[in-house]
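stage 2 :: seqdesign
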């Protein structure tokens, strides 16, 4: 039986003991101090269990989670197939990939948000108080992003947010960011170009009518 399993069994036995004691001696009162001391006694047993927990977009960013969101992004058409131009300036997050994967993923998240803000402004949406989550819901509500695109970007920014807040990041995340980051940003840039072109065309048409 491994350590995690032993910890789980121990916690279950303690809970059962307290439950039985409450039934056998119902008149015994358990005050706040007793509860606190019990929690302190259990803490050393709980720490190994807590450290083993891995929540998607939580304390640990796993490579498998990044790969899943990459596949979803590909299916949603959010990974540009166009070849990157040699003259294209490197994205800010690429310069720190080898040194700090957390910082690189945080930088990628900032780059994504900047483009979402641009898209929203191009469509004349009020985003003065919108965080990235609200921004994505707003773009989806106005059908500027498809439900699939919004879902992918919500999952991706959730994972990247974990890196921003210091979550442990899989060492392979740097390779993932090199592969996925530029394609995703290029896809968003293509959307921006499309919206900007549409705006210029509308303005030109309006002026010609005058």
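stage 2 :: out
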């Amino acid at each position: 039986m491994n350590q995690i399993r032993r910890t789980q069994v121990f916690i279950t036995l303690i809970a059962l003991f307290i439950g039985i004691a409450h039934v056998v001696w119902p008149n015994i009162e358990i005050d706040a101090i007793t509860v606190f001391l019990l929690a302190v006694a259990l803490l050393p047993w709980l720490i190994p269990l807590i450290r083993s927990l891995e929540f998607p977009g939580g304390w640990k960013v796993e490579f498998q989670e990044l790969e899943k969101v990459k596949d979803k992004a590909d299916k949603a058409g959010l990974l540009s197939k166009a070849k990157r131009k040699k003259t294209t300036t490197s994205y800010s997050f690429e310069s720190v990939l080898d040194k700090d994967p957390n910082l690189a993923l945080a930088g990628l998240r900032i780059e994504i948000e900047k483009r979402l803000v641009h898209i929203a402004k191009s469509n004349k949406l009020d985003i003065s108080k919108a965080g990235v989550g609200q921004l994505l819901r707003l773009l989806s509500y106005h059908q500027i992003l498809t439900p699939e695109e919004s879902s992918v970007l919500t999952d991706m920014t959730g994972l990247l947010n974990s890196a921003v807040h210091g979550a442990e990041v899989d060492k392979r995340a740097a390779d993932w960011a090199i592969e996925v980051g530029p394609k995703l940003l290029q896809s968003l840039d293509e959307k921006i170009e499309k919206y900007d072109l549409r705006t210029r065309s509308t303005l030109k048409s309006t002026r010609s009518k005058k």
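stage 3 :: structure notes
- Residues 3-52 form one domain.
- Helices lie at 3-24, 32-52, 63-75, 101-122, 132-141, 147-164, 173-209.
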